[in-house]
Structure formats: structure tokens, C-alpha cells
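Appendix C: a fully annotated inverse folding record. The material below is reproduced so that readers can follow the format used throughout the book. The structure is listed first as C-alpha cells, followed by the designed sequence.
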């Protein structure tokens, strides 16, 4: 029996998904961010920016520092997000943060690149909402239609890496 997006476990934590976190943070800081598209009046208050990484040297440098062997398949979509202090993300489905995610992604992983015990995201685990504190390199794997949000950032600038793909 093959697995589909509906038979994935609702939530899997993958510690150490990112190797060389300091290098990845430097790559993230240098990315050409643009403001995340407004989805409502409250979203315009958030200082949140994102960038999709097409194939090329920046993407290659980033994926070389990801333990892709623990992912359910090859990442097809990769995006970086930056949240300034006070920045947040309103409730959304994980796939909404990946450009082109309507093309049948089977899984999404959000990986925190920075760590502040005060910051993190809240995500649906299939039975309840769970708060996952930021920990550098921690990947949170879930179904693309999983609901989540980021509360206003209380620490320093927060960087996340979002990956999406199909089954191998």
C-alpha cells in the first residue's frame, strides 16, 4: 500500500534536520526577501518576509546542509521566511507558505533556523493544537493541509525554512 498525504502521520519532529545551522542562517540573512502577500487587514501589521528558492547555487548551498535522507522525498519547493521582532503569521495551512504548493505536494517540513525559547509555532497534531518551541535545526513535518500559526516574535529575528515535496 502506498502512502498518500492523508495517511501521513499528522505531525513528526525531526531534530537535527539542518546541519551547519550558522551557515544556513547566513544564507537566510542574505536572501532577497519580499513582503508576504497580504491575506487580510491584520496580516499587514506583521513584519514577515519570504523568498522562494528556485534551482540554482543558493538553493544548492542550502540543500547541501539539510539531511534530506530523513525527508519523505526530494524537496520540490523551498522557501525561507524572516520574522522581525513582533512579526507573526495568522492561522494558515502549511502549504500556503510554499509558492506553487497547489501542484500536489504530499508533505511539508518547517524547520526553525534560529532558537529562542519564547518563540515557536502552534500546529494541529491531528487531535489538538500543540506549541512547538523554536530550536535551531528542528524540522516539523506535517501534512500540507495542517493548520498552524506563529505568535508575535518576542526574541530576535526569527528565520524558518519550509520544504515541500511528493513521496519518493
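Designed amino acids, in order:
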Amino acid at each position: 500500500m502506498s502512502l498518500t498525504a492523508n495517511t501521513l502521520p499528522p505531525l513528526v519532529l525531526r531534530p537535527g534536520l539542518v546541519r551547519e545551522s550558522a551557515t544556513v542562517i547566513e544564507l537566510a540573512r542574505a536572501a532577497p526577501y519580499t513582503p508576504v502577500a497580504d491575506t487580510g487587514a491584520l496580516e499587514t501589521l506583521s513584519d514577515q518576509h519570504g523568498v522562494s528558492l528556485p534551482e540554482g547555487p543558493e538553493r544548492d548551498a542550502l540543500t547541501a546542509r539539510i539531511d534530506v535522507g530523513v525527508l519523505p522525498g526530494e524537496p520540490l519547493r523551498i522557501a525561507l521566511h524572516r520574522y522581525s521582532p513582533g512579526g507573526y503569521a495568522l492561522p494558515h495551512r502549511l502549504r500556503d507558505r510554499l509558492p506553487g504548493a497547489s501542484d500536489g505536494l504530499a508533505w511539508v517540513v518547517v524547520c526553525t533556523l534560529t532558537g529562542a525559547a519564547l518563540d515557536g509555532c502552534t500546529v494541529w497534531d491531528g487531535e489538538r493544537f500543540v506549541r512547538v518551541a523554536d530550536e535551531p535545526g528542528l524540522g516539523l513535518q506535517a501534512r500540507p493541509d495542517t493548520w498552524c500559526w506563529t505568535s508575535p516574535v518576542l526574541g530576535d529575528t526569527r528565520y524558518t525554512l519550509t520544504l515541500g515535496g511528493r513521496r519518493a
